UniProtKB/TrEMBL annotation:
Matching InterPro entries: AA-Vitamin_Transporters, EamA_dom, EmrE-like
Membrane topology: Multi-pass membrane protein
Family matches, as Gene3D superfamilies: 1.10.3730.20
Subcellular location: Membrane
Ranges annotated as spanning the membrane: 7-25, 37-56, 68-90, 96-116, 123-141, 153-172, 184-203, 215-235, 242-264, 270-287
Swiss-Prot/TrEMBL keywords: Membrane, Transmembrane, Transmembrane helix
PANTHER family: EAMA DOMAIN-CONTAINING PROTEIN, INNER MEMBRANE TRANSPORTER
Ranges for domain EamA: 7-140, 155-287
Name used for this protein in its record: Drug/metabolite exporter YedA
Domain of life: Bacteria
Gene Ontology CC: one annotated term: membrane
Protein family: Belongs to the EamA transporter family.
Length: 299
């Protein structure tokens, strides 16, 4: 069965745009934003703009209680759990390192799908998981060798974040209500943004006034990361196999590493390249295991 051309187009948008968001995260945090305050000022405006567009297009925006529960839970998993932990970790480690750690999302996705479907994991999947985990270990050798609390915290958060994102993505795909992708995107970001807004003062964040560059980075995240790329992600999840959609995580780290090196002078050491190669090889094997066609035998 041929793949959807529209789905592939939306996946290409995700490939290109989300690679640059890690740099925007870092710039926003460097130039005055606190992590959860940045999330609130990004996702709430983005969601309202998307809802306004949905109303203009006469899409259904009134939700049932079941849809509210589903979109609130998935929005919190994706944005508060997945994205929020990234924002915290980005304060302590280079943006390229963050992108590489997040590239394990396809491994978590494939594992969770296998558990939910009650299927024995293929050998290729297990090999990919092992190689991916070795890549994470290699990537973290310099950081864990230093043993500082902030590096250990970042390491832990960047292990949990892709698991939360994978869980939210699978839940969105399997429980998706009969709503337009723009509406799903809007409400998930709205609930995620409200979660950021509630937790920001509880965590003691100071709402300082960011610099112009900080606001520019956040505006970039609103327009390109939320309005365009995340809506494309919802389209891609609806139109393509999930194991193919999650390959965005293979492309993002490479571009993110180069952007961090070019704009922030983030170092690219030997362990970075070794870890990157192993992680990408691992997720590539997972991808192959999930996309391998089933060979049917005649009775």
């Amino acid at each position: 069965m041929p793949l959807s051309r529209a789905g592939l187009f939306h996946l290409l948008v995700v490939y290109l745009v989300w690679s640059s968001t890690y740099l925007a995260f870092k710039l926003g945090l460097i130039h005055g934003f606190e992590p959860f305050w940045m999330g609130a000022t990004r996702f709430i405006p983005a969601s309202l703009l998307l809802l306004g567009f949905a109303v203009w297009q006469r899409f259904r925006v009134r939700l049932t209680w079941a849809e509210v529960r589903m979109l609130a839970l998935s929005g919190l998993m994706l944005w508060l759990g997945g994205n929020g932990l990234i924002l915290i970790a980005t304060q302590y480690v280079p943006s390229g390192y963050v992108a590489l750690m997040i590239s394990t999302a396809p491994i978590w996705t494939a594992t969770l799908e296998g558990l939910l479907d009650r299927k024995r994991p293929p050998v290729l999947l297990m090999l990919g998981l092992l190689i991916g985990l070795l890549g994470i270990l290699a990537l973290n050798v310099p950081k864990l060798g230093e043993g500082t609390p902030t590096n250990l915290l970042a390491f832990a958060l960047l292990l949990i974040s892709p698991l939360m994102w994978a869980s939210g993505t699978i839940y969105t795909q399997r429980q998706s209500p009969r709503l337009e992708p723009v509406v799903i995107s809007a409400y998930q970001q709205l609930f995620g943004g409200l979660g950021f807004l509630v937790l920001s003062p509880l965590l003691g964040e100071q709402w300082h006034t960011p610099t112009l560059l900080g606001w520019a980075a956040n505006l970039y995240l609103i327009i390109f990361g939320s309005l365009i790329a995340y809506t494309s992600y919802i389209f891609a999840v609806r139109l393509l196999p999930l194991s193919l959609v999650t390959t965005y995580a293979y492309v993002n780290p490479v571009i993110a590493l180069l952007l961090g090196w070019a704009f922030l002078q983030e170092p690219l050491g030997v362990w970075t390249w070794v870890g990157a190669a192993l992680v990408l090889l691992g997720v590539g094997l997972v991808f192959r295991s999930r996309m391998r066609p089933v060979v049917q035998t005649t009775p």
